[in-house]
Design goal:
Layout (H helix, E strand, L loop, with lengths): L9 H8 L5 E5 L13 E4 L2 H11 L3 E2 L2 E2 L17 H17 L2 H13 L4
Antiparallel strand pairs: 1-2, 3-4
Length: 119
Amino acid sequence: MGGLAEEVTLEILRAAFIPFGELKDVQLPLDAAGKPRGFGFVEFEEEGDAAAAIDNMEGAELFGRTIRVNVARGGGGGGAGRAVWAEAQDWFKKLGEEVEGEGEGAEEGRGAQEGGGAQ
């Protein structure tokens, strides 16, 4: 969800979304200064509960601000499931494995491409 006021805490998010079903996880990312970034994640045990929360909370007012509630992109599980950052971690891990597997031959090929022309 997005559009959260700075006053919104994890406890407030839990209280706002628990009426829709059993919560698996609640996240409220902070910036480098330790202040809320204005968005959060609520993960439900049941996909139907998440759909009910979206239907009922999208456009609702929380601490004087209209919030946006939708399914997190990148979950890949058809709705409720893995958080966006979990998929990003998998992507970085795969990228690291590909880079490690390039070996010397790939480095030589890259050097020739970067040279820009015939030798």
